[in-house]
Amino acid sequence: MKITRWNKETAPSLEALRGALAGEGLASYEWSDPAGTVYPVHEHEFAEVRVVVRGKMRIGLPDTDEEIILGPGDRLDLPAHLPHWADVGEEGPVLYLCAAKGNGTSHHHKKGS
């Protein structure tokens, strides 16, 4: 797992973030979740890249009890088969880009309840 924090003074634009992923050969797609969204513990068959455009989301790793809060411009690279959960706080919705690494196609988990 790798976290890359946004360290520029200006807020990231959707186009700039999408362009950065495209520059790595990654096809990304937008996804948004409203406040209060919860994805229970799950894992993916593929390595996933997630970059927050607006808002915040929390990612948890149950194997290490680690929690990460991603804000605008922050990037998370998750390896395949790493159990994790995600949620969005009550402060508002989050918009992010997702991309799959290593298999040339994009995937996303189903919305949890």
Summarize this structure briefly.
With 113 residues, the protein is mostly beta strands. Helices cover 9% and strands 42% of the residues. The chain is globular, with a radius of gyration of 13 Å.
Walkthrough of the structure:
With 113 residues, the chain is mainly beta. It has one domain: Jelly Rolls. It has 1 helix and 9 strands, in the order E-H-E-E-E-E-E-E-E-E. The chain has a 5-stranded antiparallel beta sheet, covered by helices on one side. A 4-stranded antiparallel beta sheet has the order 3-8-5-6, with no helix packed on it. A hairpin with a 4-residue loop joins strand 5 and strand 6. The C terminus is likely disordered.
Mind describing the biggest β-sheet? 5 strands, antiparallel
Shape: globular
The CATH topology comes to Jelly Rolls
CATH architecture: Sandwich
Strand line-up of the largest beta sheet: 1-7-4-9-2
Residue-averaged pLDDT: 90
Number of strands: 9
Beta-strand percentage range: 35-45%
Report the helical percentage: under 10%
Overall tally of domains? 1
For the CA atoms, what is the radius of gyration?
A: 13 Å
pLDDT < 50 stretches: 104-113
| Distance, first to last CA | 26 Å
The class by helix and strand makeup works out as: mainly beta
| CATH first level | Mainly Beta
At the fourth level of CATH, the homologous superfamily is: Jelly Rolls
Following the backbone from N to C, one meets helices and strands in this order, namely EHEEEEEEEE
- The number of helical elements comes to 1
